[in-house]
Specification:
binds magnesium ion; 9 helices; binds adenosine-5'-triphosphate; 36% helix; 256 residues
Length: 256
């Protein structure tokens, strides 16, 4: 698995760059953090990476293949390998569907995928969903509940189970913990860390919170006004040569 982003730019309207000349690489099993304040272009980058939004210049390459929006067949192949978790799980989970149906939606879309955790033969569909719930630390009995009957943290775990159902090689998380209270945030971050170790998937974790990013990721990119202003390994977080903006983010996080 490799993602190569080269000189990627995106303008929603002429003259205003939501993303400006973005370049980075991610390899299998890596966890890349992208941090930046509101409006810095994080969600735009996430949507571009998923092929949900076109870009104006540059290249996006996944496993050596160029990913260009609007090429439907190619994008379908791509979506088999790449999943996304959003800040607001209520937008991911259909309130009218019981949890087990929501969890299996990606697998229903890609019937050709047989994930390795479903090796037991003859599992019913509900049992498959139960396996996935267990993977994210939820009680199997929750399969029959509806999203409205779950807490925010539980719903986010369900979204993670759903994203993992097709064993993506890349998981893009856009502020997955922003709407949760602090203790639940930590639980979800721990869960992502555990799952990453277990599956060796690659994670691109996007957040305005430098603490969450540095908890999970060994490589960090700092985004400001659509540009990368700093890029470093976790061990270099407190290095004196960090960009002044990164230092400001660290300072703000430590006095909050
Ligand atoms: N659909 C759109 N049409 C026009 N401009 C947009 C659109 N979506 C985002 N933008 C603009 O692009 C810039 C980046 O927005 P984006 O949502 O990517 O930021 P963000 O870093 O995710 O912010 P937040 O932390 O608040 O979620 C902003 O200036 C925003 O106003
Ligand atoms: Mg956003």
């Amino acid at each position: 698995m490799s993602v190569i982003v080269e000189c990627l730019s995106k303008q929603y309207s002429k003259g205003i760059s939501a993303l400006d000349n973005i370049s980075f690489r991610v390899k299998a099993g890596e966890c890349l953090g992208i941090v930046g304040e509101s409006g810095s272009g994080k969600s735009t980058l996430a949507r571009v990476l998923l092929g949900l939004e076109p870009y104006n210049e540059g290249n996006l390459t996944f496993n050596g293949k160029p990913i260009a929006p609007k090429k439907r067949a190619l994008l379908r192949q791509y979506r088999k390998s790449v999943q996304m978790i959003f800040q607001d799980s209520t937008s991911t989970l259909n309130p009218k569907l019981p949890i087990w149906k929501s969890i299996l939606e990606p697998l229903d879309n890609f019937k050709e995928v047989t994930p390795s955790f479903l090796t037991a033969e003859g599992l019913s569909r509900k049992e498959m969903a139960e396996e996935l719930l267990a993977l994210v630390g939820l009680d199997k009995q929750m399969v029959d509940r509806y999203p409205g009957e779950l807490s925010g943290g539980q719903k986010q775990r369900v979204s993670i189970a759903r994203a993992l159902s097709i064993e993506p090689s890349l998981l893009v998380c856009d502020e997955p913990t922003a709407s949760l209270d602090v203790t639940v945030q930590v639980q979800i971050l721990r869960l992502l860390k555990d799952l990453q170790k277990k599956t060796n998937m690659t994670i691109i974790f996007i957040s305005h919170d430098i603490r969450a990013v540095t908890f999970l990721c060994e490589k960090v990119i700092v985004l400001r006004n659509g540009s990368i202003v700093d890029q470093f390994q976790l061990a270099e977080l407190y290095h004196k040569d960090r960009h002044s903006y990164t230092k400001a983010l660290i300072r703000a996080a430590s006095i909050e």
